[in-house]
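Quick sanity check, Cobyrinic acid a,c-diamide synthase:
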Amino acid sequence: MPRRVNLPGADELFRATAPAPGTEAAAAAAQEPSPGSASSGRVKHDEKMTVYLTSEELIAVEQARLKLRGELGRNVDRGRLVRAALAIALADLEAHGTDSDIARRLSAS
């Protein structure tokens, strides 16, 4: 019986794990995030949630990811992008309640 071994790809093996010292990203990483408003970033996650998107929504996510990469030099995967957006929406909901952007969008649909 053949054994299949799952190995990480080259991008995962050779990715930068910390911002270069003296860069703007390093300064941002050194700042403490406010509780409840930061996404978990690149860590092992114990839970999984499946979200279905329309083709247009998926294209918008990919375009945002490519914009971050092209204009800001941030190589962000879709999961990190979605977790960051979720953290922003939840922080807005906590801070503004029914006046938050997410509450207004959900009540309109």
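Posting the structure with no commentary besides this: The longest helix spans residues 78-96.
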